[in-house]
Each structure stands twice: as C-alpha cells, then as structure tokens.
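This section describes the prediction task in plain terms. A model, or a person checking by hand, is given the sequence of a single protein chain and must write out its three-dimensional structure as a string of tokens. No templates, partner chains or ligands are provided. The sample shown here is typical of the held-out split.
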Amino acid sequence: MAEAEKKDNQKMATVKEMMDALRKPFAANEVEWRVQKSGISSGNRPWAMVLCYVTNRAIQNRLDEVFGMANWRNEYVRWGENSALCGISARIDGEWITKWDGAGDTNIEATKGGLSDSMKRAAVQWGIGRYLYNLTENFAQCSLEQQRGDEWRTATTPDKRTIYWKIPTLPAWALPAVSTTTPPIPAKPEPPKPAAPPKPATPQDRATILLNYMGSLGVTREEIEQTIGRPVEQFDEANTKLIRSAAALMNSKNLAFQAAIQEITR
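The expected answer:
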C-alpha cells in the first residue's frame, strides 16, 4: 500500500513539473502584439489598445521541450461556417489527453488566421501563455507622425486614418527569470519618444477610450456610472483600474460585467 502511494505521489510530482514548465513565461521575441481597438480622440491624439499573444512557433517549441516531439499532436475541425476548433493532445503516462478551443476566421488569410488563433487558444487550455491574460492595461504609445524602428507598427482607425504604435515593454513578471550565473545582456537604449503623450491627457479623452472599449464588451455608460457612482469623466485612477480589471475578467472568464465587479470587490 505504501509503495502504491509513493508511485502516485511521484506521478503527481511529474505532472506538476510538466504543468509548471508549460506555464513558464516566454521571451519578448516569442510573443506578438495585435491592436484590439484604436482611434483618435477629440483632441487629435491617437490611441491603441493592444493584446499580447504567444506565437505558434513558440507554442510548438514549448510542447517539444516539455513532452517531446513524438508525444504531442494537434488537429483541427471546422466549427460552424466561419470558425475552427483546434485540439492539442499530449501523451502523459501512456494516455492521450486532449484540450480543445476555437476561434473565428480572421480578416487577413481568413482560414489560416482562424486555425492559427484556435491553436493559440487551445494552448492556453494547457496553461501556455495564460499569464498574458493578467496584462490588464495595454495602451500602446502612439503617434500620428511616421516613426522608424523595429518596435513601431502601424494601425488603421475606424475612420481609415493611419496611426503609429510602439510595441509595449513586458513587465518583469511576464518574462523568464534572468540567470544569476551570467550577466544579463544590456538593453538597447530607447529611441527618443515622440512628442505625443502615450496616454490621453484629458479626462474627456480617457473617458472616451474607456467607454469605447467597454462598449465593445456590451457595457453601457449607465452601467459603469451606476457601479462607480459618478460620471466617467470624473473617474480617478482607482475607478478606472476597477473597470479595466472587470473587463479583463470578462475576457478571460467570460463573465458578465456585474459578475466581474462582484468577483473583484468581494
């Protein structure tokens, strides 16, 4: 009996080590950023809200590293007319375990983009890149003037104007731990920042961005103001942080707005 319990404990420890290895943060060059929402405020200031994803190549490398090339596989099936499901399977203790998730076709290379996104979502089911959901506030530094450098990207606003946005810097907790055996490679000096501020400067600008984003999640101004008890234009930093945290929970846990607020404040 003691021997069987010892084997079970060893198996649990092995599985935990695998899960910990899958959840490890990725290097900055193994993730990509996409614009979720963008626009130009009433003060003619560009803004862009961006999301961070692990690249498919990094996902494949992580699965090779943890399970071995012969011990994992992926498969795809169509889901409705414009969506795809991806299943990532891993062989653990001789048993194949599969986790599924899906995504809709994208605007660029629709089918290929949908398959790629569905694999990213399935990887999250295994814990790969799940920590990126904790990046709750990702307003990129933006400019209307053309910018040069590998860290700058372009986006087209709903009114067909081009803006330039800079890839955000990941916080330390979202990067692999720096080895203590060798000195870290010095970071490249930052280029001069454009004159435009990275965030809206006026309460009206901040309110517009917040309302636009929450509106995309189906939350009205009235719901937000009723929750906080004041007009959006009068929100302080704590009020804004509460609403953005609720939005992050709505995205990561598929919660309704009030349910997300209750989970944060309970």
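For orientation: Strands lie at 31-40, 46-54, 72-78, 83-92, 95-104, 141-143, 152-156, 162-166.
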